[in-house]
C-alpha cells in the first residue's frame, strides 16, 4: 500500500507524516524488528495521533491531518507553517511500533486482573497498577508537541 505523505503543504488527502521506508529505518536504527504491514501500522498510529491536542492551530481547514500548524514553537524555536517536525515523525514511528507490539494506545481498557490462577501459575497485579501499558517513549515525545492543559492551545498576549 502506498501512503500519501504530508510534507508540509497541507494536503487534503494525506495519511501519514512518514513513509514505510522511514519507519523501517527508524526501527532498524534502534534494533527494533517490525512484524506486520508497516503501512497499516502507520495508518493505525495516525488514528491515535489525530486525537492529540497539539500546540498551535491547524494551518488550513482543508488539510487532512493536524500538521502543518500555525504558532508553534518547540524549544523556543519557531516551527514554520510548511514544516513537519522530526519530533512528530518520531512520535508516529513510536506509536506505530507500539501498536505492532500489541500496545495500542486506543485499545479498549478491560477490567484489571486482581488474581488469575491456571494450574500452578498465578498472576496478581498490584491494586494501583494501570490497566494498560504506559509507554514512556511516546509520552516523552508528545510532551513538546501537545498542550499541557488539554485546552485549545491558544496563547493570550497583552500589549
Brief overview:
This protein is of the alpha+beta class.
Report on the structure:
With 159 residues, this protein is of the alpha+beta class. The protein has one domain (20-142). 28% of the residues lie in helices and 10% in strands. The strands form three sheets. Strands 1-2 form a two-stranded antiparallel ribbon. A hairpin with a 2-residue loop joins strand 5 (116-118) and strand 6. Helix 3 runs antiparallel to helix 4. The longest helix has 15 residues, at 86-100.
Features:
159 residues; alpha+beta; two-stranded antiparallel sheet; globular
Oligomeric nature of the chains: single chain
How many helix segments? 4
Strand percentage, roughly? 5-15%
The residue fraction in helices comes out at 25-40%
Tell me the span between the first and last alpha carbons: 51 Å
Query: pLDDT average, as an integer?
Result: 86
Q: SS-based structural class?
A: alpha+beta
Q: How would you write the strand order of the largest sheet? A: 1-2
Shape: globular
- H/E element order: HHEEEEHEEH
Contiguous low-pLDDT stretches (5 residues minimum) are 150-159
Rounded to an integer, what's the Rg over CA atoms? 18 Å
Largest sheet: 2 strands, antiparallel
**Total discrete domains:** 1
Number of strands: 6
Amino acid at each position: 500500500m502506498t501512503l500519501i505523505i504530508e510534507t508540509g503543504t497541507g494536503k487534503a488527502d494525506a495519511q501519514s507524516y512518514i513513509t514505510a521506508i522511514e519507519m523501517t529505518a527508524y526501527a532498524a536504527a534502534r534494533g527494533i524488528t517490525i512484524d506486520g504491514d508497516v503501512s497499516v501500522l502507520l495508518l493505525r498510529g495516525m488514528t491515535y495521533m489525530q486525537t492529540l491536542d497539539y500546540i498551535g492551530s491547524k494551518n488550513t481547514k482543508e488539510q487532512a491531518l493536524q500538521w502543518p500548524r500555525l504558532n508553534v514553537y518547540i524549544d523556543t524555536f519557531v516551527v514554520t507553517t510548511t514544516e513537519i517536525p522530526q519530533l512528530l515523525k518520531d512520535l508516529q514511528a513510536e506509536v506505530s511500533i507500539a501498536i505492532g507490539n500489541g500496545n495500542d494506545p486506543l485499545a479498549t481498557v478491560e477490567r484489571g486482573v486482581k488474581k488469575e490462577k491456571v494450574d500452578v501459575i498465578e498472576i496478581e497485579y498490584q491494586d494501583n497498577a494501570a490497566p494498560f501499558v504506559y509507554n514512556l517513549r511516546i509520552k516523552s515525545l508528545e510532551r513538546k508537541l501537545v498542550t499541557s492543559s488539554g485546552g485549545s492551545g491558544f496563547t493570550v498576549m497583552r500589549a
